[in-house]
TrEMBL record:
Highest taxon listed in the record's lineage: Bacteria
Keyword annotations from UniProtKB, A to Z: Magnesium, Metal-binding
The record's free-text note on cofactor binding: Binds 2 magnesium ions per subunit.
Name the record gives this protein: ADP-ribosylglycohydrolase family protein
Organism of origin: Streptomyces alkaliphilus
Length: 114
């Protein structure tokens, strides 16, 4: 069922809009992979170079927004890397607890003693 949904997502043009895509593909309301993954991959595919826009597009589809945004964020960030995260979001991010608090994904070779 997931494969069929992904096939439908691949055939759906980007200008369909997130509301229509969610209606046709599902957006996580049923909390199942076949109702979540196709829409998430559609959003990621059509906004692959802009993490912020990809997440807003995904949220506009409503449904299980935290899950679909997590999937889309992971897929798009894998393509864009940290440079895809807006400077404002990086500035506003929460600190990670120790030991991760020493790791800075923006400057991974920077001072790790902070």
């Amino acid at each position: 069922e997931v494969r069929e949904g992904v096939g439908r997502a691949a055939d759906l043009p980007g200008d369909a809009g997130p509301e229509r895509a969610a209606a046709l593909l599902g957006s996580g309301h049923r909390i199942r992979a076949d109702d979540t993954v196709p829409f998430a991959l559609w959003c990621a595919a059509h906004r692959a170079d802009d993490l912020t826009e990809a997440l807003w597009t995904t949220a506009a589809g409503l449904g299980d927004v935290d899950t679909t945004c997590a999937i889309v964020g992971g897929v798009v960030a894998a393509r864009t890397g940290v440079t895809g995260v807006s400077p404002e979001w990086l500035e506003r991010r929460e600190s990670l607890p120790h030991p991760f608090g020493r790791w800075d994904p923006v400057h991974p070779m920077g001072d790790r003693s902070v």
